[in-house]
Amino acid sequence: MYAPQRLLLLTAFLVPLLASAQGMLLPTTPNARPLAIKSQRVSVEIQDGTSVTRVEQTFQNDGPSQLEAHYIFPLPKGAALSEFYLWINGKKTKGEILEKEKATSIYEGIVRRLADPGLLEYVDSDVFRVRVFPVPARGEQKVELAFSQVLNYSSGLYHYHYPLGATAKAQPADWRQVGGTATRDFTFSARISSKTPLRSIYSPTHQVDVSRRGEASAVVGMEQVGGADLSKDLDLYFSVSDKAVGLSLLTYKQADEPGYFVALITPKTEVSPNEIGAKRVTFVIDTSGSMQGDRMKIAKDALRYCVTRLNAQDTFNVVRFSTDVEPLFPGLKQASKENIQKAVSFVDQMEAIGGTAIDEALVRGLQDNDGKSPTPHLLLFITDGQPTIGETDESVIAQHSKEGRKTKTRVFTFGVGEDLNARLLDRLSAEGNGTSDFVRDGKEFETKISSFYDKVSNPVLADLALDLSSIDAYDLYPRKLPDLFKGTQVVVMGRYRKPGDAKVVLTGYVNSDKRTFDYGTTAPREATRDDFIPRLWAIRKVGFLLEEIRLRGERPELRDEVLALGKKFGIVTPYTSYLVVEDEPLAVTGQPPPPPVIRPWEDHPPHRHENRPMPKAEAREAEDDFGDLFGASRGRAGGGASGAMAPSAAAPAPAESMTMAEGKGGVAVSRATKKMKEQERGPSASDPVRVAAGRTFIFRDGGWIDSEALTSPGKQLKVKFLSKAYFALLQVKPELKAAFSLGDRVVVMVSKGRSVIVGPDGEEDEAKARAFLK
Questions:
Q1: Which of 18, 35, 360, 421 is the most buried (most CB within 10 A)?
Q2: Model pTM score
Q3: How many Cβ atoms from other residues are within 10 Å of residue 49's Cβ?
């Protein structure tokens, strides 16, 4: 059919921007699986919104015979293939582009052949393929290609997308091991340059490293070695702006309901000294007996690091406390070389001995702010213990802090270890417009404190306020914006009611000077591409609700809202922990019962095969912090692979668990809540939750079920996987492709009061399937 090194370029594009799948080497032998990807290197050059992507893939043939195969790679919409090379018998050989044809029928055939719905991503894409022969027995096949494209651009924000997810689902069951070595090592790098200064750089899908190279360039990188998780596509957003502070909006909105947005606020990279605000800092350090040994040494090293990096215009003080409280200076002093040296000597002489006078130390630290200065006052409070000297009542200490705290003060607490009152430290920081963190002994202690100080050492704008009234924005998180520091980015999530062109106003202060920034943007009437946004917003909101419950007590309206959001968006909380239980949902003591377990594939229990997503054991391992915390408190079920949580007589009710204050449990709840409040990325591939076409799917009973169908499935149609009826549904409603790509067992709401069940049996007649959608 095809001569060696000759490509047939196939085209047709009906899916949203850049939706596609990465390259695949498919043997021509009937029923053969695609070859495992041993390694993949992706390098991107982006200049002023135009990108050139270079891909190197190495495939492994583990079999005893040489193979003939087709290499298939779908291109992003509008992309132009510029280079293609095959390595044949050790020689790099250039390919040749011939002609174009429609690919839909060909790739429906591939989906049927492999019985892999993940490959639906190939259908209706711009793709090319080439015959590859021979692929050596127990050998490797290397492919190189390059393509260029113009990136999608809107209101100063560019979007780059690299397809990964579909082919990852197509890998053999044992893809993690090829020839006894880990496979699918993956590296990604993107060099971004722009004539207009770069501002925000954000990936909602992957943790990437960003290295700024001045105002106009940056390098973004990611490396995963040894069984890399490539089961979701990589998205990268970056904004450009001439303003000193850039602001960009990402939006998601279905026509019939209020929209969601993510606002990215980023200062310029190169900030002159006169653009850096002065700050006042009080370091309050615990030197009680429990700080003896390495803990005291590391604390002193971290404190030296901080005081020696004060800016010349800053003022500061150091307060140590144990049984007594001792400040270095009577009040804040200028950060001169002489005063910094006095501080270093003061730190050197610190000894760990005595009790823990938290209340007195906190009150003394707050006294450094007289309430008259326009510059922010940062109070860094470091302790490893509970209050044992003076006032020890948590509520009274919090009240004393509130009374002593004046305007411009931000309280940042660091708890060391677990023998402390985590709830108290959280309360002090929450009410003090700061943050709390908990660190383990050793290197993490020093690293976290020094990295935090690096972040806050150069304030760019204080007392931020964001005016989004032109889009009627509401339900914003964080509720109070933090200060903006050099090299950082503030991510705000919320909802909006009023679509259309809009004006966004950001205000803040540099010392006593007010700065105002105006931005023109658009809040669309309908925007469904960035479907990760609603769930991220919901996770953040749940984090703030849980914090409110923890610090101020459970109220029915707060509990009910957590329950509603948890069910709709598949969020694990103390009130919805049953969402991750595979065998039976677990009712939490004193709470409404969970929804009934629906068994859409009851007659055909799931069986393990190579493309089965999220086996039960993996789903259990994928629980987040709350799942782990509350699973541990109840105990695990013994036997079997499910690992479902087992009820226990000692299991605390959610209200009790959320009020854990001391010890390991208190720290765990604090960390879980903090993680939710700061959530910026979608679920990982191992999570028992997926987002597709703006809907949340939960792994249950061996398949993916639309969260809305868990409680209200409505009228249902069972459709046989890969039947004519199955593909007829996709033709009538192409938007179902994202849901159907999740697996061979899927329940999805197709309209209000109607859902489709895809499984091993069901309707095969395409006319009946089409009629169901009318």
A1: 35
A2: 0.83
A3: 18
